[in-house]
Each structure stands twice: as structure tokens, then as C-alpha cells.
């Protein structure tokens, strides 16, 4: 019965081309709506933990749909481990669900991570959208709306009082990122070289499939290619943290927060 219900939503489509009208228009509209919603909720003094938790629930439900659709409709009876939900862009789902139940110190660390890495992952995936395009309407929309949700999460954290905006706040969240990287690497190692598993795109068996970093790995080797990719991601999040920390001071002064 579940399979039959899922098949009802199996609307085929020609995968849109990156930087086509579809990609540009949907990205611009989704980013704009995500930021506007975060600003609207912030100005209404809504508890950010509540709507971050609800966003985590939305992501979890949509991910369950995606996993069932892939396993029962796209690859009937075969689970494709490439889609196991533990990429960098998957982690915010788990953190949003855990956030309300943490002590204040843990909330600051999670909020800094969500602010920096959600925005980084959301904007980077939309800038290079090849992984979002699928031959099914629902899977393509899932990919886009997932990353719109990440931008909403990151913006909501930015507009809230939750994260520590100092360099110390970034450094406090760095072990969480590195711990996720090590977990992803362990999953990739345990899956073995005969699978296509590449959580966080740091497989120990093959070069990263991320643009630019694939070429780096071919020249430096897989180990150093992965290390450079992880370092570049952490540095990108650091730049976002610094930039948003400076911007928040100006925004808070202007809004009276």
C-alpha cells in the first residue's frame, strides 16, 4: 500500500539544467522567502528554538518520504547507501530536533554550528546544483526545499540571541563539525571500497566528487584531498561566522534588539 501511494507522486520530469531559468528562478524565490520568513518570525519575537524544532520535524518527515521513495519506487527493494542521510546538509535536521532539550552551553554550540554550516551548505548546494536535479518532480523539489530550509535555519540563528558570535563561539562548534567528519569517514570506511558511500564527500577509497576538490584529490592523493576539503569547509564556516558576527551588531542596533 505504501508503495502504491508513493507511486502516485512519481511524476517524471527531465532533470533541469544547472543555471537554467528553473534553477535561477526557484533559487531566488526560495532564498528570498526563507530569509523573509526568518526575519518575520524574529520581529514577532517568536521563540527561535520552537520554529527551529518544527523545521527539524519538516526535514525529518521529508527525508522519510525521500528514503521510502528511493527504496520502494526508484530502486525497488534495494537501498542506495549514497543517499544515507548523513551529509553536512543533513546534520542540521538532527541538531534542530535536539536543540530545545540541551543545556544553555550546548544550545550556544549547536546554534553557532547551525548558523555557520547551514548557510554554507545551503548556498553552496544552490550555487552548484547538479546534486539537486532528479528525473522526478518530488525529488527535485525536495532537494531545493531542503536547502531553502537550511538558509531559513541559518538566518533564524543569526537573528536570534542563541549563538556565541565571537571567535570563541566558532571554535566551540568546531569539534562538533570535526566529530561529524570523523563519523562520516567511519561510515565510508565501514561500507568498504565496493560501495558508492561518500558521507561528507570524504571517502577513503576514491577522490571527492565535489567540484574543484575532485581535481585537488587527483593531484595530491585522496588523504590530502579530503583534508583540504574539510579544512576549506571549516574555513568557509569561519568566514561566515566572522561576517555575521559583525553584521549582527549593526542589525541589532538598527532594530533595537
Automatic annotation (TrEMBL):
Stretches that traverse the bilayer: 20-40, 52-75, 81-102, 109-127, 139-159, 171-191, 227-248
KW ATP-binding (keyword) present: no
Pfam assignment, any one: TMEM164
The name this protein goes by in its record: YwaF family protein
Protein keywords: Membrane, Transmembrane, Transmembrane helix
